[in-house]
Design brief:
Keywords: Membrane, Transferase, Transmembrane, Transmembrane helix. This protein has 352 residues and is mostly helical. Helices cover 67% and strands 2% of the residues. The two termini are 26 Å apart.
């Protein structure tokens, strides 16, 4: 359990004190955020704010995780390595998008199709690798069974599992990307979800079939190490939030949002709580649904809109709500969604 505290604390310190260094470096290179002209007018004041802050989140979480293992002499699990690989590769896709935006000085980087292809490719590689590497008990990082609050009896088979993982990763990474529209909004919501993964990983380890055999035990390959990784991600996001909160001194950019979305999907798959990600990441789901509803209604009604602007947070901006007010209220919603997810997880265990 010491690894959880060490990894989280180290990641927090690296992100908290490393972000100002990154800000100065990005400012010297003039790598500032490009703001769309069709967005809320209040956002024009953010033009030029350093972006690509996801770099420090990725580095801080990885270093914190590895130092936690180095101090405790506990080997790194294959499950955590695969999730880290997914996070790094999606972060690379986001970095390319951010780089093209700042280098071209326009709000368009990679095309939507290019981003989807990149996300899908790396998600498929992750999914294909994760159904291999069985341990002595025959457990692989990702199960061939569909998981809700735990593995179900529905066997998808290798092909459908990889397709399902691709869908999860693309959906979650884009959901975090859509949420990252106000200072600190996505970062704060991600912290809460990663902390929930810490609790779930620790619980699954304590109630694992190798530790506590029984009809109600969990068959998850590396739950405790995944909890360590989740703690390092929570710590890195918290340190970054200090500088990302309104008025933001730096944005995570697609580098951070795609990486965090990949980490959320990867942790949900490896902890075998895939569908539980819906309530745990409820705010991301709500904001994504607002975009889908807006587009579908716009096409069906011949140009009419449900919201003044999508994603949902910008609708409330145009209604006159202050940015800090929106972020705080959305954080409350995110916290309630996480509480609901944890409640469902525990209620299922009790019901057994």
């Amino acid at each position: 359990m010491r690894e959880i505290l060490i990894a989280g604390a180290i990641a927090l310190m690296i992100s908290l004190f490393g972000t100002p260094v990154l800000i100065r470096g990005l400012n010297r290179k003039k790598y500032g955020q490009i703001i769309r002209d069709d967005g809320p007018r209040s956002h024009q004041t953010k033009r030029g704010t350093p972006t690509m802050g996801g770099i420090i989140i990725i580095l801080g979480s990885f270093i914190g995780f590895l130092i936690g293992h180095l101090v405790t002499s506990v080997p790194v699990s294959i499950s955590a390595m695969l999730v880290m690989g997914l996070m790094a590769t999606l972060g690379f896709v986001g970095f390319l998008d951010d780089w093209l935006k700042v280098s071209r000085q326009q709000s368009l980087g990679l095309t939507g199709r290019q981003k989807i292809i990149g996300q899908g490719l790396f998600a498929a590689i992750f999914g294909n690798l994760a159904i291999h590497f069985a341990d002595v008990d025959g457990l692989t990082p990702v199960s061939l069974h569909l998981s809700t609050l735990r593995d179900t009896s529905l066997n998808l088979g290798p092909v459908l599992v990889v397709i399902w993982i691709v869908f999860m990763v693309i959906g979650t990474s884009n959901a975090v990307n859509l949420t990252d529209g106000l200072d600190g909004l996505a970062t704060g919501a991600a912290v809460m979800t990663f902390l929930a993964f810490v609790l779930i990983g620790v619980w699954e380890f304590g109630q694992g079939c190798a530790v506590t055999p029984g009809i109600n035990c969990y068959n998850v390959r590396d739950p405790l190490d995944l909890a360590v990784l989740a703690a390092s991600l929570a710590g890195a996001c918290t340190g970054f939030l200090w500088w990302n909160a309104s008025p933001a001194k730096i944005f995570m950019g697609d580098t951070g949002s795609l990486a965090l979305g990949g980490a959320l999907a990867g942790l949900a798959a490896t902890l075998r709580i895939e569908l539980l990600l819906v309530p745990l990441g409820g705010l991301f789901v709500i904001i994504t649904m607002s975009v889908i509803i807006q587009r579908l209604y716009f096409k069906a009604s011949g140009g009419k809109r449900v919201f003044k602007m999508a994603p949902l947070q910008h609708h409330f901006e145009l209604l006159g709500w202050g940015e800090v007010t929106i972020v705080l209220r959305f954080w409350i919603i995110a916290g309630l969604c996480v509480a609901l997810g944890l409640g469902l997880f525990y209620a299922q265990w009790v019901a057994k």
